[in-house]
Every structure is written in structure tokens, then in C-alpha cells.
Specification:
The chain is built from six helices and ten strands, in the order αααααββββββββαββ. By secondary structure, the chain is α+β, with helices and mostly antiparallel strands. The protein is rod-shaped. Keywords: Membrane, Transmembrane, Transmembrane helix. It comes from Kwoniella bestiolae CBS 10118.
Length: 344
């Protein structure tokens, strides 16, 4: 029985060549690769083996019967040839196979085989979704965190940056930061009055009136500043001063030192400009009377009373978040000017 491909496609006539091929020279019978009865086997035919409607597998001529291609039928008697493999006469080879100029390697016949079904599992399909990708990312981060807490991997891809090393680095950084801040952060300075001359006045600005009852003049507060507690110069953005009459606790003067630097040493003179301004209802006001009597004309045989002040300083220092305040008091202050004889 001839094969189907050999019937439909006669072998081409190739020119002789010197190359020795195992297809043209089959192994001898005494070879280790030779099997008894191999010559009786028919060539392999792809289409005949996979064609479900061909005579080899079709039940058109009766039920399939068992037989052997090599034996020629059941029990080697040549029976049941109708159901045996045979060429299909209705098969027409494509035009490309009739061209003798093409090599045998380019004249294979394409065979339609059933498509393989999808092998994706449900879990694999879930991993391809957006939620699945998010879960995979979360699992990866969780695994990396657990490995880092166990000192099995480094942080941010750095192998040596384990948990113990990171703790040591943070501790060293905080220690260095603490030492740096200790020397850099300024301390709040102390201030006190210069007792010999606590304040000076510009006499050209002195004004006392009975109606309306008020007084006003400009001057300077003479202070000593102590910045020795700081390791760096202190930068003041503002130094606001409010002066109170200690007897009545009423504000009588205000001033601001402005933007200045103070060295880190003690006993530094500070002249803070200040303006005295006060208004009352009438001349019986205690605060107005205290200032008028202390700064009045020095008549023969009279003694002027002293002044008592309380100074409140509000500081705005670069490097400090809050605005610290401090206060100091001074008594037995002699008024630095004298009103005229024709004064009110």
C-alpha cells in the first residue's frame, strides 16, 4: 500500500550531488539503528493521520476495525481493507507543490489542528487585574518590611542599611543635632537700668498741660544688657519697651530698639529710644501729679519727690519661636529735667 503523500506528490527529480544523506542511504540491516520489518512501514503522512474525515478514521464504510498497516489487515490476512489507510483521490495539492523549482523543505503541507484551550487559572487572571496588582505590591512591601525588621535586607535597596545600622545613624544624628543646637540657639539676655542715669530727656520736647491734662517728651532709657549666656551674638528683630508708673501701674512711655545685634558678653550698654505720653481727665490724676511734682521747678527750700518705674521688655530674637518677656524695677529716680517758673 503506497502512502498518500507519495501518491499525490511524486518525488521531484533533483540533480545528483556529492552530499551523502541518510535519507538516500538507509542504514544497513546489520546496523544498530535498524529494526526488523522497518522496510514494510509506510511513510508518515501528516494529513492522513490528522484528517478525521479520511478513510483511515472515517466510519462511512462501516465501523472501525482493528488492523495493522504492516500486516495488511486483521491477523495479517489482508482483511478489512475498506477501513484501512488509503490515499484520498479527491485531495488536490496546492499549486505551490507542483513547482519543481522549489525545494522539498518549502513544500510542507499545513495541517489544521484543534486549538488548545486556555490554561489560565482564576488566581492568575486575578493577578492581572488592577486590584491583583495592588495586592501583589502590598504583599511585596509587607515582605520587604518584615525582612528589614529582621535585619535580613537593607533599606531602599542599600544592603548595609539594616535596622540596627539605621538606629545607630539616627542616634548619632540626633546627638550631633542636640550638641549643635546647644551652641547655636540663643539665650534670652538680661537687662537692668543704669542706676546713675536711668533715662535721659530731650528738653526741647518737654510739654506739660493742665487743660487738657497731659504730658509728653522724648528720651532714651539707659540699660545694661547681659548676653554672656549665649555662644553666638544675639540678633534682635525688635525689643519693645513699656514703662509703667510703679505707684499707679499705668503705662506712661513706650519704645522699640529695632533691629540690632548684641554680643555674647555682659555689661553691654543699650540706649533704647522711648516716648513719654500720658493723658488724664483732670489735674487731680495721681499719675500726672507724680510726674509733675517730680519734674517741677526747684524752689528754694523744697525737695522734689523721686520717681518709681517698672520696665517691661518684649523681645523678638532670631532663633527663638516665642517672644520672651522680662521686667525690671527701679526706684529713687530723679527727674532729669526741671520745669520753668512760669510752667503750669
Amino acid at each position: 500500500m503506497s502512502s498518500r503523500l507519495s501518491h499525490d506528490f511524486p518525488p521531484p527529480n533533483y540533480p545528483p550531488h556529492n552530499r551523502q544523506s541518510s535519507y538516500n542511504n538507509p542504514p544497513p540491516r546489520n546496523s544498530l539503528y535498524y529494526e526488523e520489518g522497518e522496510d514494510l512501514d509506510e511513510p508518515f503522512d501528516v494529513r492522513a493521520d490528522f484528517d478525521g474525515v479520511g478513510p483511515r478514521w472515517s466510519e462511512r464504510n462501516g465501523a472501525k476495525k482493528e488492523g495493522s498497516v504492516r500486516s495488511g489487515g486483521a491477523l495479517g490476512m489482508g482483511m478489512m481493507d475498506d477501513a484501512m489507510y488509503r490515499p484520498v483521490s479527491t485531495h488536490i495539492a496546492p499549486s505551490a507543490y507542483g513547482d519543481i523549482n522549489k525545494s522539498a523543505a518549502s513544500r510542507e503541507e499545513m495541517v489544521s489542528v484543534p486549538m488548545l484551550g486556555p490554561e489560565w487559572q482564576k488566581s492568575e487572571l486575578h493577578e492581572l487585574s488592577r486590584r491583583g496588582q495592588a495586592e501583589l505590591g502590598g504583599d511585596k512591601r509587607s515582605k520587604a518590611w518584615k525582612e528589614w525588621t529582621r535585619d535580613q535586607r537593607g533599606l531602599c535597596g542599600v544592603k548595609w542599611l539594616t535596622r540596627k545600622v539605621l538606629v545607630f545613624i539616627i542616634f548619632a544624628f540626633l546627638a550631633a543635632l542636640g550638641v549643635t543646637l546647644f551652641f547655636v540657639i540663643p539665650r534670652v539676655p538680661n537687662f537692668e537700668f543704669y542706676k546713675d542715669a536711668p533715662f535721659t530727656v530731650d528738653n526741647s520736647t518737654v510739654s506739660f498741660n493742665r487743660v487738657p491734662t497731659n504730658f509728653s517728651f522724648a528720651g532714651n532709657l539707659n540699660l545694661y544688657g547681659d548676653g554672656s549666656a549665649s555662644y553666638l551674638p544675639i540678633h534682635f528683630k525688635s525689643l519693645q519697651a513699656t514703662l509703667y508708673d510703679e505707684t499707679t501701674n499705668k503705662a506712661i512711655a513706650k519704645g522699640d530698639w529695632g533691629n540690632h545685634y548684641m554680643d555674647h558678653k555682659d555689661q553691654q550698654p543699650v540706649q533704647l529710644p522711648i516716648n513719654f505720653e500720658y493723658s488724664a481727665v483732670n489735674t487731680s490724676d495721681t499719675t500726672w501729679n507724680d510726674m509733675y511734682q517730680a519734674c517741677g521747678h526747684k524752689w528754694t527750700g523744697t525737695t522734689r519727690p523721686d520717681l518709681k518705674f517698672r520696665l517691661v521688655l518684649k523681645m523678638s530674637i532670631v532663633g527663638l519661636v516665642n517672644s520672651p518677656e522680662m521686667s525690671t524695677q527701679i526706684s529713687n529716680v530723679e527727674c532729669p529735667f526741671e520745669l520753668g517758673t512760669n510752667s503750669v
